[in-house]
Write a structure and sequence with these properties.
Blueprint lengths: L2 H20 L3 H16 L3 E7 L5 E7 L3 H12 L4 H7 L7 E3 L3 H8 L11 E8 L2 E9 L8 H62 L5 H27 L9 H12 L2 E7 L6 H22 L3 E9 L2 E8 L15 H12 L3 E7 L3 E9 L7
Parallel strand pairs: 6-7
Antiparallel strand pairs: 1-2, 1-5, 3-4, 4-5, 7-8, 8-10, 9-10
Helix pairs in contact: 1-2, 1-6, 2-6, 3-5, 6-7, 8-9, 9-10
Bound molecules: adenosine-5'-diphosphate and magnesium ion (MG).
The site of magnesium ion has 4 residues, from helix 9.
């Protein structure tokens, strides 16, 4: 290889590395780097497929494709299989390689889709970061049927850089997503613990004060206050509910164990059966579990709790137990307080049964038994 050419290649790699280093948006990055790559290599056309773990692909960037492939809204590029995709999917395509012919271009000629610019072959390079695969980079030029080892090596090093950048962008997006989830969970908890509790006290105070007066006008005003605070409470509850429960990406058990860690409650977990619940039940139990572990921490005076989940074919039993302070529950006058009453409401909304068993000095156990209809699984 001539000295000039080597210098030129290094310069090309540097320009591309700089562009990638600054990129924060996948689409802009892929289009930019493809354009730069074609410019520095003198190749004419290029396109990038992103391929997900199920093998479905999307055309993420393209540059100077021949007319035959861009017609009909780029349909020839977005539909049907192709030899490079086949090789990628079955794991044969590990390195940059010459693809003998391009099936899309063959079809273009066969079905007379238009001008192919005399492009018949393309080189294909997988986009990877370590073991992770993201898709394919393809490049081509008129009448070029063979790519030299040096050309393939250059393409490969660019493809590696693209792979690493894709990985970085995705990690950053994921981190952003996790921050949002944490913030929403915090907000929901805070709303429940602060505003909700205050509204609740306001409602009780209005109700209590009503008993202290005989004046009908004041009584009426106080009733009105009570109603208003009741209304505000239900709106607040709806709002908290809408701050969708997130954090369930890795399943209920893992979410609850993590939640325990966040709270500083050590959870001893016992699972019988396979936890593969419909998402609405998972969400419901996740919410209830959060409140129950909160209560352990806040009221039970212990940092240890048991989580039991038992799944049989048509129902799930979900129990959280602590051996802390306990409190006296009057089963006839069930449950004036918000945390416990929303556990009950949530359970009953899906046809389940909520029970709480607690004795002073002996700890507390909540139990939910819920029907599971498999066909509801989303
Ligand atoms: N695990 C528990 N251990 C001891 N007391 C509890 C426990 N869970 C609930 N309680 C009692 O029941 C009350 C109501 O709980 P809850 O409805 O969650 O409201 P909050 O937690 O907002 O006070 C608590 O104030 C506490 O006295
Ligand atoms: Mg509570």
């Amino acid at each position: 290889m001539g000295e000039d050419q080597r210098v030129q290649e290094l310069r090309a790699l540097k320009i591309i590395a700089e562009a990638l280093n600054q990129a924060n948006d996948q689409k802009t990055m892929l289009n930019g780097v493809l354009e730069e790559l074609l410019r520095v290599t003198g190749l004419q056309a290029g396109w990038i497929y992103l391929i997900d773990e199920n093998g479905s692909y999307t055309l993420a960037a393209d540059h100077h494709l021949p007319e035959a492939l861009v017609g009909n809204n780029k349909k020839p590029m977005c539909k049907g299989g192709c030899w490079c995709l086949d090789q990628y999917k079955d794991g044969r395509l590990k390195r940059a390689s010459n693809i003998i012919e391009c099936k899309r271009l063959e079809d273009a000629i066969k079905f007379k889709w238009g001008n192919t610019d005399d492009i018949t072959h393309h080189a294909t390079v997988p986009l990877r970061a370590g073991e992770e695969k993201f898709g394919l980079l393809n490049v081509a030029s008129p009448n070029k049927t063979y790519f030299s080892d040096t050309e393939l090596a250059l393409l490969e090093s660019v493809a590696f850089q693209i792979g690493t950048t894709l990985k970085r962008i995705r990690l950053a997006e994921n981190e952003q997503h996790l921050l949002v989830i944490a913030e929403r969970n915090r907000l929901a908890r805070d709303l429940h613990d602060s505003v909700n509790q205050l509204l609740f006290s306001l409602m009780l105070t209005a109700r209590g004060t009503k008993e202290l007066t005989e004046d009908p006008q004041i009584k009426e005003m106080l009733s009105y206050m009570q109603e208003l605070s009741q209304e505000a409470l239900s709106e607040m509850r709806a709002l908290i509910w809408q701050l969708r429960p997130q954090g369930l990406e890795n399943g209920l058990v893992s979410a609850l164990m993590n939640y325990g860690k966040v709270l500083g409650v050590e959870i001893d977990c016992e699972v019988k059966g396979v936890v593969d619940l419909p998402s609405h039940i998972e969400e419901c139990l996740w919410r209830i579990g959060q409140e129950a572990f909160n209560n352990c921490k806040k009221h039970a005076g212990t940092r240890e709790a048991m989580l039991r989940i038992e799944i049989e074919n048509k129902s799930v039993v979900f129990e959280i137990e602590d051996f802390g302070a306990g409190f006296s529950v009057d089963p006839s006058e069930f449950i004036p307080s918000l945390g416990l009453s929303s556990m009950k409401e949530r359970t009953e909304a899906f046809g389940g049964i909520f029970t709480i068993d607690s004795r002073l000095g002996q700890g507390t156990k909540i139990r939910i038994e819920m029907p599971v209809k498999k066909e509801e699984k989303q």
